[in-house]
Specification:
Layout lengths: L2 H5 L4 H11 L7 H4 L5 E5 L17 E5 L17 E5 L17 E3 L19 E3 L19 E3 L20 E3 L8 H4 L10 E3 L16 H8 L5 E2 L2 E2 L3 H74 L3 H62 L4 E5 L5 H12 L11 E14 H17 L4 H4 L5 E6 L11 H8 L4 H6 L6 E4 L2 H20 L11 E10 L3 E3 L16 E5 L3 H6 L21 E5 L5 E13 L25 H11 L16 H8 L9 E3 L19 E3 L19 E3 L19 E3 L8 H11 L5 E3 L11 H8 L5 E2 L2 E2 L2 H12 L5 H7 E2 L13 H8 L20 E3 L19 E3 L19 E3 L19 E3 L10 H5 L6 E3 L19 E3 L22 E3 L4 H5 L3 H8 L5 E2 L2 E2 L2 H11 L2 E3 H8 L9 E3 L7 E3 L11 E3 L19 E3 L20 H8 L7 H4 L3 H4 L13 E3 L8 H4 L9 E3 L19 E3 L21 E3 L19 E3 L8 H5 L9 E3 L11 H8 L5 E2 ...
Helix pairs in contact: 5-6, 6-7, 7-15, 17-18, 18-19, 24-25, 32-33
Amino acid sequence: MTQNEKLGLTADEEIIKELCVSNGLCYEKVCQEGSVETVLEMFFSGFPCMVGLSLFPRLSRLTIVGQSISSIQGLEYCPLLRELWVVECKLNEISGLHNCVHLQKLFLYDNNIQQISNLEMLVDLRVLWLNKNQISDIQGLNSLVNLEELNLADNAIETLGHSLDPNINLQNLNLSGNKISSFKELTHLTRLQRLRHLSLKDPQSVPNPLCLLYNYYIHVIYHMPHLQCLDTYDISSKHLKDFAESTVMKKVMYYTMRVRCAQRQFDELKAKLRQQRRDQIQLPEERIRVLARMLRNLECELSHVQCAGKKSGEPEDLTSDLRHEQRLQHKLDALKCRLKFWERRLEEVVSCHQHNVALASDRKEMMVHFLLLELETVGNIRFEEGNTSEPWFTSCYDLLLSRFCVWDYKPQHITGIKINRIIRIHNRALRQRFQDKVHSLICRQESSPFSQNYKCCMEYLFYVPDPEHSCESDEILQIPENGFKTADAYKALGRERAVPLSNSVSASDRLRMAFMQKKSCSTSGSSPADPLPFRHGQLIISKVFLGRSAAVREGRPIDCHHYPKANSVYLSTSSKTQNQTAQTDVLCPSSLPDSCDCRQQQKLWYIFDHEMVMPEYLVDFEYVSQDTTQPFLDSLSSSHTSPSDAPSVSRVELDLDEEALNLEPILNPHPKMLSLDEKSILTVARANVLSQITVLNLHGNSLNKLPEISRLTALKHLTLSFNEFTHLDDISHMPNLEYLDASFNHISSLDGLRGLGRLIELDLRWNQLTQVRDDMNVLRKHAPALLRLDTRHNPWHRNECVRMVVLGRLKTLTHLDDVLVMEEEAAAAIQVVARSRINQASLMTHSRTDSERPRSLSLLSTAHLLTQISPSPWKHSQELESGWTTKITALNLDGQRLSRLSNLDRLVNLRWASFDNNELTRIEGLEHCLLLEELSLNNNSISRLEGLCAMHRLTRLSINSNHLQCLDGDVLDRLPNLHFLSVENNIISSLHGLQRSRSLFELYVGNNDISTTRDIYHLKALSSLIILDLYGNPLVNKLENYRIYMVFHLPSLKALDGVAVETCESETAKDVFEGRLNADMVAEKLGHTNYRELSELNLQSSSVRMVDLVPADLFVNLRSINLEHNNLTSFSGLIFLPNIKVLSLNYNHIESILPRQKVQSHMSNKQILYHKVSSSGYGQLNSRPSREGLTGDNLEPLMSSLEVLHLGHNGISNLINLQISRLTNLRALFLQGNDISQVDGLDGLRRLRELVLDRNRIKSLSENSFSGQGVLLDLHLAENRIRELNHLQPLKGLRRLFLDMNKIQDISELEKLELLPSLIELSVVGNPVARRSLHRSLVVLHLSTLQVLDGITVTLEERTRAELLNNEAQGSSSGAEMTLPGLVPLVTRPAPLRGTGIHTHIPDQQDDTHDTSRYKKQRAVVSLLRGVQSDVNFRQIRGSSGHYMTALQQTGFRVLSTISNADPETRYLCHSGPRPPPPPPL
């Protein structure tokens, strides 16, 4: 090519010159210099088209900025180009790059490109910038596998889809300034594992709509944890990622509970519907049984008549038999007619039940869908179910009723509309879009009328999907999420090019009603079974901005192009156009002869822009028809129908039954056989030899066994209907049997059938068969020639698949349940059976090889999720490589009707598996799957947790709806990483074993048989448990205050039975249950539940606040209880223990045996205060209980077995309030260390032997203090304030009296003790009288029976000296001491204490009546010595034992006060040594 040819010598020459000048090249030498030039740049002007590039064959970078280039061309001469910039130009498309195979960077931003195309050859491309264009869809990037940076900012992209999946090396992605509004779109980016930088709202662009939604950052960070930078922010911090992870986990747990609650409500509704069905089929079943029994009797009689007629040859007999046969046949026809009626009625009930269950299931699925949608959108879409207390619910309800016109439904006899549910839709993205659109319209047309008052253009309109012109079956679910379709989408469906709405319920629902009516007629003939097949419906109430509206013009299509100035158009339903359009519409309300005025206001609206329509409410409704025309089926159509609403059968039908049963002839009842023997068989068969019997009819007896039936070797026809058979074990090895009727019995299994090789027909209706698979296996093996089988009206497990299971196993059947078996049906059933085994094909179809669980906001298990979002890696046509099964990580074999797990031994890397909805009976075949992390076995028949011991990595286990009876602790102990366990809908009766699964976070045990509170104690070891579900167990309804009881015992719980645990609930639980002693607490403390073997219970210092040991029969052998150092205020919970003998309640706060009644609410605060403080004296005349009202004689005695009671140190101040006299069998009562000031209220303690009142505030004894204690032996009154010893005369049997440390001063008070004839021991140590010179001798002298005084034995010698001194004092006034021969002088020095060599000297204390000042000075010293030295001395005097030795020792029952010697609070008596008398006065 010549030089002139290269330059072109055209108008391009000037462009090339400009190119050379801009890049410092000489135009004349461009041919030589251009061949080595690698970089060219052109900025802003001078390069209107890409020419002259052929002069630069080695060009590697080309930069063109701000030119008017409309297309890329000339690059075919630059094969070495690696970087291309064509930016801020006017490119309309991507082209001319097919030869630039080495291109690595391509910058085409700020152009007019609308579609990504022609990039297939750029396999080396690393960087692609297409921002600031007009791209709406991401496409054409599939071949760019090496792409690392992609900039698509400032375009019009709304969806992502799988468009970026091939770009696995993408590291930097900018999508800012687009129209992405759904979080679901972002989840597609999770497949880009190398993505590190993502921008959705960088500072230079407008943010995407989703960036304005709640939890935007949390959603992105959770789904893409590998990101380092988001929207120019560094998010590489582990703290941020952990926070996002924990937030999402909380939301997942919350919505898991919500979904389970929805499922639970559905289960409860199904249970109610089942009960309703049972109630409604009771009468039809009863009538069918009666009629069928009579029908069989008549058939037997007819066969006998026909046989007899054949044998008889007399004409008269033949005529009579013929007449009788005709009557029998007539009655048979009448009974068959009635039987068909009741069978049809029964089918209606069953069909209606199935319809109700399906309706409830659809509603449940819708709620679950909405909940999952809330989770996936992180709360940016919410659904609020309304009730009458919500103002918006009432407004919406009134709006619907105001726009419902009965006249529109007159042909269908509809009288009203019932609103079942209204759900409010909160879609933040749609609301933002709607507000932006309205704002833009208002701003665009500022001078228009609606810009000044735009609210007048707002309207609420209705929408009901048209099932005939809808491509989506769940459009009603898609609209709340994505909004309405575009006008073009509705046009593509064959409708008008706009969003169709209406302000009338009938107008919006007319298309659905017509479609359902047509469908019903086509499926059930000209007269549909249900006259209202469209009874239940759903509509959406939308908020609409009408903008500029116009009426539809006749003959002009509804299209925005034909109404350029209108935002919406409307069409009146009463207009001529509408009438003509709807002439073929059988439901068109305008064709009615009569109408009301509201017809004139009904309009059809068409909105051209779908963004001006925002869905706000979803309404579930049903039409109400006239009762006179409402058939039996309609009355059950509502899921809210209760059993009482079931239609009553008219008396006419029952009369028709009786009329048919009473037709002639009336058969005489034959006697029922209870057993079968040879003679009875011959009689029934009317035969002489058993071997000749071919037909045997045993209908209508009470047989449950057939012991002789196997001897009938020639039997072909056997009827056993209406008997009492539960099994058919006796019917075996009958080679000629062809027909067997075992209907209307109680057969529960076919295991007994054997050797029926010629059996052709078998009737098993109206029995109790449940296991279809096992029973059909029996028939397949032992009845290989079976042609006809009837299994109707049996309670089959999973009744919906019975027919397929039967046909798959009995391939010879021609009729099943009286329906002809088609070849296609039989072939399909055989294929289903073939798929019920785990083989290579099933593994290839249902397995995945992903190495990680997808980051998805889903409640599905990993196995479900992977099989749902990932394609199978295997193709059935390809040849599998060796060891392909070792790559399998996920396996989902749900609903494959597997009976056992097999062929899984090579799946050594299996991590997630699901075998739901099968027929498994045990866990097996998983021994080699050691890496298994999640396992789901719901809806099977598993009864034990076997086969899991090797799965040490298992974290989630779900075995709902099986037959588990217990939770094996040995198995759970070998699952150390188990975090999630769900065993709902089983028959588990105990939670024992769960305490060994210490890693559990979530536990679901709903709908089992947990009934005892002690099972809860098995869960207390689960310190990490935060979610627990026990709903549906008997314990929930049985246990009072169930919820706070659970919250108290399991304080780590965050959610219980699907409801979050509030802080106030925890506080209430502490108030109610903290310190409650019950059987469960005893079991927890002792480690066992053998309550009946318990004889002693010691729970000191256990913070016990109340006692609730019920039932009392469990503690029948309990004899002794020690509850010292607790917080009891009463012991009413102990009064029902039948055999308690010793009760120790020291150091509590006992106020009364029974709880104190609450203070009356009408009392003032001051009165309440004075009521509590008895010393105030306020109102004591009214508030103090009288003796007469609280004596043991007037109140019912309690605790008849109690003998010893310790109530020391309880702060007791009033014995009457204590009601102690009700313990009538009490022998020993210890009340030391209280605040008792008056001894009263002991009247009922007539058997009391020992009473301890030491260390109280008693000042005196009243006349009634000991009026009933005639047998009292020991009385302890030490350390009180007693001055006088009055009113002790009732204590005739008192033997020991301890008065230490009181204020007895006069010796005359001690002389009053002469009235106690049995007193043998007395102690007055620490009293003023004990320090007088002659107190001991005077006491010994006056108390002749006394043996021990102040802890020292009274000897005969001492008593003699006392008598002599007394005689001397009476005979002489001399004060000289007298000594007699042979007698030891009277002690004049302190005697050594027993057991010790310590001598104690206590200064004399003069009578406080003579020297008060001196007494006061010495009081502190004396008190100190008395409190220290005397207390030690007295312990030594009384001996080393620190226990009270009571008078009950002779009974053989040992009573000990368990108080240590080292505790100074344990001794209540203090003694001083005897003092010498004072010297005589000088």
